[in-house]
């Protein structure tokens, strides 16, 4: 009797397994080798910012390379938590990809309600390019150097705008002004670089700290004044603008990565295909030229380096967040 019951259970199991296989196999057959359907790139920022620009430049080229549509989907908000959580929860099949910046790292260490764990829930695929930041001033502010800014801050109240609370611009300012210079310059968070720069040009804000790509055109046209860039070496797009390190703070080096992530559990073959496809795009002469002209700096795209960069930044920014007492609620 027991043997008969076991046989019935086993046959029932085989019947269910066959049904599952029959239901799944048409989907698998339709998908075929990766990528064989639309690929969606989720951007944690509004249109027009540096990360969005990279997503669209690379997405257009990938669509041609693959013969498949690459859809750029902007999901800004909550210091990129919305976009990051969306991809962390996505099916790990390579068809929903995140492009984000160091702001996602800072948000994780500054916000107890960030709602994600990068190292556990995402695969850092590759860093496409570095975005140095720029400290810029309103056209009428009577300063020409970082030393001038610090001196002026001791005689009048100054404020700087950034693309958001606990974003990379905010942390770069907190590190420089609060921790290193010990001066009081108020931080004003904006919903993106564009409105911060608009207020700077309109003389409604004295200073701004944003990534280079959205600021470069306004610096070159004279609508805002470049005070210093935050990278260790001068930026290729603005070679006449000194670094913060040159301006009295040796060793100061703040960049933000512009990187692609996939959900944890994505098959290695899919991750490798995407990584190698992006490398082909980055090797194209017109893409190289556009990225440099827009204010990006070349990154080391070796597969093993990006997870290390993310891990190092989690430690680095956790220290700054703690010392500057920065919180996101």
Overall description:
The chain has helices spanning about 1-30, 50-65, 80-90, 105-110, 120, 145-155, 170-180, 195-200, 210-220, 270-280, 285-295, 305-325, and strands spanning about 40-45, 70-75, 95-100, 120-135, 160, 185-190, 205-210, 225-230, 255-265, 295-300. The protein contains 12 helices and 10 strands. It has about 325 residues and is an alpha/beta fold. Strands 1, 2, 3, 4, 5, 6, 7, 8, 9 and 10 form a 10-stranded mixed sheet that branches. The longest helix is centred in the N-terminal third of the chain and has 30 residues, at about 1-30. The chain folds into 2 domains: about 40-130 and about 255-325, D-Maltodextrin-Binding Protein, domain 2; about 130-230, D-Maltodextrin-Binding Protein, domain 2, CATH 3.40.190.10. The termini are far apart. α7 (about 170-180) links the parallel β5 (about 160) and β6.
- Count every helix, treating DSSP H or I runs of 4 or more residues as helices: 12
Number of domains: 2
Distance between the termini: 63 Å
Query: Strand-residue fraction?
Result: 15-25%
- The CATH class of the largest domain is identified as Alpha Beta
Determine the mean pLDDT: 89
Secondary-structure element string: HEHEHEHHEHEHEHEHEEHHEH
**What is the total tally of β strands?**
10
Shape: globular
Biggest pleated sheet: 10 strands, mixed
Q: Can you identify the CATH superfamily of the largest domain?
A: Bordetella uptake gene, domain 1
- CATH topology of the largest domain: the name is D-Maltodextrin-Binding Protein, domain 2
Helix proportion: 40-55%
Return the CATH architecture of the largest domain: 3-Layer(aba) Sandwich
Q: What's the gyration radius in Å?
A: 23 Å
